[in-house]
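Render Protein-tyrosine sulfotransferase in 3D.
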Amino acid sequence: MVMVMMMKLKQNLLVACLVISSVTVFYLGRHAMECHHRIEERSSQPGDQGVLGGLQGPRGLLLGGSLSSSTILRGSGPAGHNLSAPFVYNKDMPLVFIGGVPRSGTTLMRAMLDAHPEVRCGEETRVIPRILAMKQMWSRSGREKMRLDEAGVTDEVLDAAMQAFLLEVIVKHGEPANFLCNKDPFALKSLSYLAKIFPHAKFVLMIRDGRASVHSMISRKVTIAGFDLGSYRDCLTKWNRAIETMYTQCLEASDKCLPVHYEQLVLHPEKWMRTLLKFLDIPWNEAVLHHEELIGKAGGVSLSKKGSSQGVGVFHSLHRNDQPPHQIKTTKKKYRQYNKLWGETRDICHRADVFIHCDLCWS
C-alpha cells in the first residue's frame, strides 16, 4: 500500500515538473521571438547598421563593427558657442595630457588651461594611470602575453579597448569642450603608448627641481604610491626614476611633447603660456593668466583639496615685490637649510635676485 502511494506521488511530481518545464520553455521562446523582432526593427533604421551588420550601441559606438565617432549633447558653455550642436569625439581628436612627478606644478598647469574658455581638463581621474600600469604589466610579462594571445586577446584588441575606455573617461568626467585634456601626473609614464593609441594627442611634461618636489611632498604629507615620505633619499631616488622614464619618452615623442619647467612658468607665466598654447594649436586667451579669479565659479576652475595649493597659492604672490622683510628672511633661511641638507648652493629659482619669489618653489 505504501509502495503504491509513493509511486503515485512520484508520477504526480513528474507530471508537475513536465507542466512547469513546458510553460517555462513556452515563455522563453516567446520572449526570444520578441527580442529578435525588436533587433530586426532597430537594425533596419537608417544610420544604425554597423560595418559588420552590428547594432548601434550607446553613445554611437557600433557594436559588432568597427569603432566609430561617438556623440553626446553639449551642456552649458561659453557665450558664442553653439550649445545645440552635438559634441562628436573620437581617437583622432586633439587631446592634451599633462603629467610629471606629483608636486611639480601639474595642478597649476591644469588650472591655467582650465581657465581657457575652449579647454576643459577637470580634476585627476585617478583610474587612467592605474589602467595604463596594468596594460604595461601585461606587456612586460611574456607568460601573460602568451596566454592573452592564445585567448585571442591580441595587442590590437587591447589597444582598441584601452582607447575606448580612456576616451570615455576623459570625455565623460566633465563638460564637453573644443579641447579636452587630462591631468593624471603618472599617466606620462606611458607617454609612448598614449601617443600610439591617440595619434593626434599632445603632451605637457611638468619638470620641477627634484629637491623642491620631494620637500613639498614630504612637508605637505602628500601620499604617493611607492614613495616613502619618511626618507628623503627614497623619495629622491623614486623621483629620479620617474622623471627619467617620462623625460626619455618625451624626447622620443619630439614635436608631440613639450617640457615645461615649473619655476620658469611661475616667473614668466605669459611667455610660457603663449609658447604652450601655440604648441597645442589653441588660440591665445588672457584668461589663462588669471585662473585664480575663476576658481569655484560656474564654468570656471575646480580644484580638489589635495591638489589646490599649487593652483591657488602660487599666483597670489606672483610678481609681488611688497613681501614683508620677515617673510623674505624666512624664505632665505629655508633656502639655506635646504642647500645645506643636500650640500649644494645653486639657486633653484635660477636667479640670484628672486628670493621674494623663491617661496613659490616650496609651495
